[in-house]
Structures are given as C-alpha cells and as structure tokens.
Amino acid sequence: MKLRKTNTHLNQLALNLYKISSETKANLWSRIADDLLMPTRQRRLVNVFKLNLYSKDGDVIVVPGKVLGTGDLNHQVTVAAFGFSKSAIEKIKNAKGNVMTIPELIQKNPKGKDVKIFG
Fold it and tell me: pTM of the prediction?
C-alpha cells in the first residue's frame, strides 16, 4: 500500500490501523484509517456541541480528525481522535469525560466493540 501523506505519524497510524483490522477482523479500524487518509480539506472536524448533541452518557467515540472546542458538553463520554484543540480537551475533562489518542483506544478496545465514529 502506498501512502501519500507527508505526515509520517499519520501514515504510521493508518498502517497500524490496517494491521489491527486484519488481525482482529474489526472493520472499524480500516474505516478509520481510510478516513484519516482522505485529503486534508475533507478530514473530519467535530465540535464539542456535536458530541453533546449526538452522544449519550458513557459513549466511546472516535473522531478520524480533530475535535474542536465550540459548544459545551454536559455528560461523560470517552473521545479518541487524531487531534484535539486545547479548549476541547478542557471541556471534555470538565464534563468528567476521557480524552485519548486513537492508539490508546486500540490498546483498550482492540475489537472496537461499542465504539461510535463521529464526523
């Protein structure tokens, strides 16, 4: 597979996601890798208010892009993403939620069970 991104961290993450997907038979990870390898202008940007609107208390969410800090969050969620703004991290943590990277989520939940893709 030929990766055309100049961000080596993004390329390595995508390769790891494809590898985990084939090992665990969880198509979720290959879908996230495909989304991360989209052109930059098509990459996902999700604001905190959308997390609040479309999630429930205790949900595990993965964003194949960046989480931005517009809006408020009033329930506890676990969010894994490629990137976070500082205000988004603060708002998620103030709501007693968890912020993690996608590789951290893979270590905790390699099968991707009960994980929602946002964006």
Answer: 0.91
